[in-house]
Amino acid sequence: MTETISTPAALPVALQHRFADELPELALPWRAEDAVEARLLALSEDLATGLGLDPVALRTESGLGLLTGTVVPAGATPVAQGYAGHQFGGYSPRLGDGRALLLGELTDTDGRLRDLHLKGSGRTPFARGGDGRAAVGPMLREHVVSEAMHALGIPTTRSLAVVATGRAVQRETVLPGAVLARVASSHLRVGSFQYARALGAQAGDDQVLRRLADHAIARHHPDAADADAPYVALYDAVVAAQAELVASWMLVGFVHGVMNTDNMTISGETIDYGPCAFLEAHDPATVFSSIDTGGRYAYGNQPAVASWNLARLAEAMLPLFDADEEAAIAIAQESLGRFAGLYADAWTAGMRAKLGLPEGLDDQVLRPLLEELEELMTGGHVDHTSFFRSLARLARGDAEPARGAVLDLVAFDAWAERWLALEPDADAMDRVNPVYVPRNHLVEEALDAATGGDLAPVERLLEAVRRPYDERPGLERYAAQAPEDFGRYVTYCGT
Ligand code: AMP
Ligand code: MG
Question: What pLDDT band is residue 9 in, cutting at 50, 70 and 90?
């Protein structure tokens, strides 16, 4: 059901409405609020091109209309999506897009269906007490961090653009408002399944849940359709995708910060960059979010939380696994039971690569090496990102940077001797260990400047993190740790 539609200024956008058509129970037709004065702050040109959108056209008035939802292409059906979710362990039966809209789906130049979604586009019936808006700083944060994640090769939703709305947003202070245009392989979440399951419980049948699962299979895991038990195969595919995803976060030192079940996708893409941040000092207990006082979403807890969230997904999907609940639970337990092994395999393979070691190493050699490294890094408060680059220098014969980073030199030297004996490939290490990640002090500095109207620091930061492995002269400060006086970093959820 693809229509080619023109906006008033003839911006040709073929927006489909598959989600709205197939899952009307989860899709509330809605419109964005008007922008007062739209101004483009950031645009991902390569993403635009890949979607078949002309970056030049997106910069025009009708382009900004599309990016803020105020000029809706004829025939499009923007909807607020309904979902539920466990937030910090407590269940909320009705969350949904309180300040977001799914504009529709686009087919990209590779033939893949992608959601075009807005965040900060005004109150919807799911807004509860919220104002429906978003501020420039947090939307640019999502832009910068998701661009960095994409460049690091980590599955993620993408930011197409950030547009200032000219509206004031009341937070602790009055801030300039913005809308983020986000692209994802879909916005289906664990919380979507929880919501659909609850609708079925009210109605006494599971047809919405079944339709949602069919939709998810078609969009993300089409092979599951041919399996003996397609819904179990779907669940298995989500478990595998999330195990890979969380391993990739751990390898790069990413702390999501708010792994609620409404912020976990079925596709396996990272979503909702709120209080997220990258580690500097390596420590499993690291928490950045101001509201995560119990450390539920600490760096080192992320694999366990992912598994907990997947258990909630299994609960929501139980009627699809087997009509007999006990049999369904047994199936779910077997599938979820594979998460730990899949995660460990992905993490171990990733660490092996970060250390420049070949495939096929004896587990008895590799595992203790990795465990001891973890201890050395934690004990020495070692900067997660730069340390792996320092190890590559050690592999080339320059021991000083790595030795300068650790505390226990005796233990480190002993570890290094065993590692070097395995003949690590330093060039291979530099291809997988980034030089540049969006460091917290640089993100803050750039967002503060942007909030005050100066976009140059955001643009320079983007330049660094969009080519994370490519060390370039002049970008030294983007590779360096925060200065001492930056202190402990705290991120805020009130985005
Ligand atoms: P998030 O923390 O962004 O994942 O959002 C959690 C829930 O709160 C979602 O249902 C959002 O739509 C909703 N929400 C967050 N901020 C606002 C806001 N300013 N106005 C309305 N709803 C919001
Ligand atoms: Mg969310």
Answer: low
The response to whether residue 468 sits with its C-beta less than 6 Å from ligand 1 reads no
Alpha-carbon distance 292 to 85, whole Å? 17
Catalytic residue among 97, 206, 236, 262: 262
Residues 61-84: pLDDT tens digits?
A: 999 999 999 999 988 999 999 999
CB-CB contact of 97 with 3 (8 Å) = no
Ligand 1 atom closest to 495 (CA): 16
Q: How confident is the model at residue 10 (pLDDT cuts 50, 70, 90)?
A: very low
The DSSP 8-state label assigned to residue 75 in this structure reads T
CA R_g for the chain: 23
pLDDT given at position 495: 61
- List phi, psi (to 5°) of 104: 150, -170
Query: What CA–CA distance (Å, rounded) separates 465 from 456?
Result: 14
pLDDT in tens, 272-292: 999 999 999 999 999 999 999
Instruction: Give DSSP secondary structure letters for 390-459.
Output: HHHHHHTT--HHHHHH-S-HHHHHHHHHHHHTT---HHHHHHHS-S----HHHHHHHHHHHHTT--HHHH
**150, 151, 177, 184: which is closest to 162 by C-alpha?**
177
Please state the pTM of the whole predicted model: 0.96
Q: Whose CA is nearest to atom 11 of ligand 1?
A: 98
Known catalytic residue: 448?
no
**Which residue lies with its CA nearest to atom 1 of ligand 1?**
272
Strand partners, 16: 105
Q: How many helices (H) and strands (E) does the chain have?
A: 19, 13
Dihedral-angle region of residue 25 (phi above 0 means left; psi in -120 to 50 means alpha; beta otherwise): alpha
Q: Examine the pLDDT at 6 and tell me if it is beyond 70.
A: no
For the record, the structure tokens of 29 come out as 């037709």
Residue tagged 């290094």 (tokens): 416
Q: What number of CA atoms fall less than 13 Å from residue 201's CA on the CB side?
A: 11
Residue 156: C-alpha distances to residues 70, 80, 186, 297 (Å) = 26, 21, 11, 19
